[in-house]
Specification:
16 helices; binds protoporphyrin IX containing FE; alpha+beta; Cytochrome p450; five-stranded mixed sheet; three-stranded antiparallel sheet; about 50% helix; 12 strands
């Protein structure tokens, strides 16, 4: 079948472990090194082989054919064990029904109302910051995205147990990634890491049970995602309680972690580039009314803000590595691919190629002058593609722009001396060690006078 050519192998495979060690210890450097070996490169994860796609058009081909290249492979399988069979992890056979059902909550016309709720939640969260505070920026951003996701998707505005929820999601995210490299029999051993993972997962499902119960007790059908899911359980489409919990778990996780990572990386980059920070201040000062949060109607004017977000999505894509499984014998780039083969696609790998982005490690929002993430561009894939493309892309971009503009209009975030920021790959690519000092701009940074 196909042309019998041998797929190039990544160098450095170890007996038994294959490339698992490189992928555990230096995953980003390892991924970025692969295109030098070919458009498709074979890696070994322990005994199992996987094919990594290094060419953007091949990635598109795989993403556009989700029947042949279904959700699967170690990352998705571990994700499915953890999150359940929700929209993000379900196989092709379940996807159409689930997507049709949940899509209603993401219709374009709903965005202005969501944005209004977001602006309120963002203003409240940022309003609690104090001049001179040192904050863990990732946690601060997750707090904002958790509040907005709970309010918009689940009509839940009580933030009583938010801290526990976020801590549990963090343990969960790292755990899913680590488990990808463990043989399944080891997943159940009573090690401290496994115990922490199982406890976090159990607590998350319990917390989600409470979100659902509270929603049912309020009996409000405000058209939010949870109302839609609950209505579907009554109207013969038959979503079971477990299926609803799986959906809520998937949407909460995806809604909280991804946008928070983008915001945290963007604030880190701005602190590293005072020239860009000053340009952003000029924009938000000119566009936004003094002391008020950013609102939906202002988004078209926040063009530099949007370019910063696009460049952050390029340089630090939260969904940095994803897997698929070949459901039938097929071909990729003329190479035969057997049924059951794991396929890896990595927005990080594609976005860091010098052939696509000159000087790829440089944070340069001006790459996007006159271009947007919504254009067809196989070289920019932070939201994936095809029928499994992120359902929350517009929601996430809106939330990121509103949050970044609101924060930078009011606060300056500076690195704390000695802090070392590094990417920590889990299910999401998060910045670790991002502690920053926040100072109120209106009192301490008169450098960019307000235009109104
Ligand atoms: C900037 C923020 C975001 C980024 C970078 C992002 C990234 C992604 C990516 C890469 C995928 C495809 C995964 C794959 O191919 O296997 C995806 C799917 C998905 N995302 Fe997002 N996401 C973001 C925000 C959100 C938000 C805010 C929500 C929900 C509120 C969300 C919910 C989902 C869901 C449910 C899927 C699965 C879609 C399907 O399979 O039909 N995402 N996201």
């Amino acid at each position: 079948m196909g042309i019998a050519r041998t797929i190039p192998r990544a160098p450095g495979s170890l007996p038994l472990l294959g490339h698992a060690l490189s992928l555990r210890r230096h995953p980003l450097a390892f991924l970025v090194s692969l295109p030098a070996h070919g458009d498709v490169v074979r890696v070994k994860l322990g005994p199992a082989a996987a094919l990594v796609l290094c060419d953007p058009d091949l990635v598109q081909k795989v993403l556009l054919d989700d029947r042949t290249f279904d959700k699967g492979g170690p990352l998705i399988e571990r994700g499915r064990e953890g999150l359940g069979n929700g929209l993000a992890t379900c196989p092709h056979g379940d996807h159409r029904r689930q997507r049709r059902l949940t899509q209603q909550a993401f219709q374009t016309q709903r965005m202005p109302a969501y944005a209004q709720m977001m602006s309120k939640q963002i203003a409240e969260a940022v309003g609690r910051w104090g001049d001179g505070d040192i904050v863990d920026v990732l946690t601060a951003m997750q707090t904002i995205t958790a509040r907005t996701t709970l309010a918009t998707m689940f009509a839940d505005t009580s933030d009583a147990s938010l801290t526990d929820l976020l801590a549990d999601f963090n343990v969960f995210s790292r755990g899913v990634y680590k488990r990808m490299f463990m043989p399944p029999p080891l997943h159940k051993l009573p090690t401290p890491g496994n115990r922490r993972y199982h406890q976090a997962r159990a607590r998350l499902r319990q917390a989600i049970g409470s979100v659902i119960e509270n929603h049912q007790a309020r009996d409000d059908n405000s058209g939010d995602l949870l109302s839609i899911l609950l209505a579907a359980s009554d109207d013969g489409q038959g979503l079971s309680d477990a299926e609803i919990t799986d959906q809520v778990m998937s949407f909460l996780y995806a809604g909280i972690e991804t946008t928070a990572a983008v915001l945290a990386w963007a604030l880190h980059q701005l602190a590293q580039h005072p020239d860009l920070e000053a340009r952003l201040h000029t924009e938000v000062d000119a566009v936004m009314p003094k002391g008020a949060p950013a609102t939906f109607d202002l988004l078209p004017q926040l063009q530099f803000t949007n370019r910063i977000i696009t460049e952050t999505l390029r340089l630090h894509p939260p969904g940095w590595m994803l897997t698929r499984i070949a459901t039938t014998d097929t071909q990729l780039a003329g190479y035969p691919v057997e049924k059951g083969t794991t396929i890896v696609y990595s927005p990080y790998l594609i976005h860091h190629q010098a052939a696509l982005y000159p000087d790829p490690e440089r944070f340069d929002p001006d790459r996007w002058n006159g271009r947007t993430t919504r254009g067809r561009n196989s070289a920019l894939i932070p939201f994936g593609g095809g029928t499994r493309k992120c359902i929350g892309d517009t929601f996430g971009l809106t939330e990121a722009a509103l949050t970044l503009a609101t924060i930078t209009a009011q606060w300056r975030l500076e690195p704390t001396p000695g802090a070392t920021v590094r990417p920590v790959p889990g299910l999401i690519l998060n910045p670790h060690g991002l502690a920053m000092r926040i100072t109120a701009r209106t009192t301490s940074n008169p450098a960019a006078p307000r235009s109104t």
